[in-house]
Design brief:
Layout lengths: L1 E5 L6 H13 L4 E4 L16 H11 L4 E7 L6 H14 L4 E5 L18 H20 L2 E5 L4 E6 L12 E4 L3 H10 L2 E4 L12 H22 L7 E5 L11 H12 L5 E5 L12 H7 L1
Parallel strand pairs: 1-2, 1-10, 2-3, 3-4, 4-7, 7-8, 8-9, 9-10
Antiparallel strand pairs: 5-6
Helix pairs in contact: 1-2, 2-3, 3-4, 4-5, 5-6, 6-7
């Protein structure tokens, strides 16, 4: 199983660069950051842009794959976003993983001054967003007319380093988003689900939830004739699932529980001094070792 780390974009680069380099030096397989304009209880604290952060990380590292967990249509348009992604794929030497999701109803949903979209509209926008982004990153010129997004002779020269485009890691749990993942994803992403009382699910209950979601993904693949084994399965711990970062032994048991249900990649957060994701950063060295 591959293991990755999310580094929240909350520190000035003079501090954050050491985190990104340390994750690579420890041998983790991938490193990620959130793509939000503001996020939850950290809204009034320092917060930096995802794409500039990843560009700096690409320059500061040499081999680790880097990406967004996840970008969404809440404040992005596929045409301008595609240009940034082509640039980032170039700067990273083809190490970009593009995490995409439908977005939620947090600060990003209203910061541009409109009412938050319903779940149905958010999902419909996501379908169009990914379809257009796929076209833009695959071909040098794109014209697209959708209900929510349009492009007129949009250019994407010189295209991606990775061909036919950067790989998509698509977060999906509902039926329509599962079909987006089946159609476009190199990696499927889930955060699992919280327990009824709002606490984090432990490894066994979490693995059971993820197993059910994988079954839905396999069904969506079957409907379009895609081999589900061609899609990696990534579990992001922390928002809803316990990461098991209290000891190397507990983390090994967590990895084993998810591997047993078909998960290929497990991602944890760089431990912070306070919630969310409170913990001791030295645990990353211990689990890496």
């Amino acid at each position: 199983m591959r293991v990755g780390v999310v580094i929240l974009p909350e520190h000035p680069w003079a501090t954050a660069v050491a985190q990104w380099r340390r994750v690579e030096d420890l041998g983790f397989d991938h490193a990620w950051t959130y793509d939000h304009l503001a996020w939850r209880d950290l809204r009034d604290g320092p917060w930096f842009g995802a794409i500039p952060t990843l560009t700096a990380a690409a320059i500061a590292t040499t081999s680790i794959r880097i990406g967004t967990l996840v970008a969404s249509p809440n404040f992005r348009h596929p045409v301008s976003f595609a240009r940034e992604l082509v640039t980032l794929d170039d700067v990273s030497g083809g190490r970009l993983e593009l995490g995409l999701g439908a977005g939620g109803q947090g600060w990003d949903a209203t910061v541009l001054g409109h009412e938050p979209w319903s779940l149905a509209e958010r999902t419909a926008r996501f379908v169009e967003f990914v379809d257009l982004l796929d076209d833009l990153l695959r071909q040098p010129e794109t014209t697209f007319g959708g209900r929510y997004y349009r492009a007129l002779e949009a250019r994407t020269y010189p295209g991606c380093v990775q061909q036919p485009r950067v790989p998509f890691a698509i977060a999906a749990t509902g039926p329509r988003s599962m079909h987006v993942a089946a159609k476009h994803a190199s990696t499927w992403v889930t955060t699992g689900a919280r327990s009824p009382d709002g606490s984090l699910l432990g490894r066994d209950a979490g693995a059971e939830v993820v197993a059910g979601q994988i079954h839905l993904l396999e069904g969506a693949c079957s409907e379009i004739g895609r081999d589900p084994a061609s899609i990696a399965r990534l579990v992001l711990t922390g928002p809803e699932l316990d990461a098991g970062l209290r000891s190397p032994a507990e983390f090994a048991e967590t990895k084993a529980a998810y591997a047993a249900v078909g998960v290929t990649d497990l991602v944890v957060h760089w431990p912070r001094p306070s919630e969310p994701y409170a913990g001791d950063p030295s645990i990353l060295e211990r689990i890496a070792g």
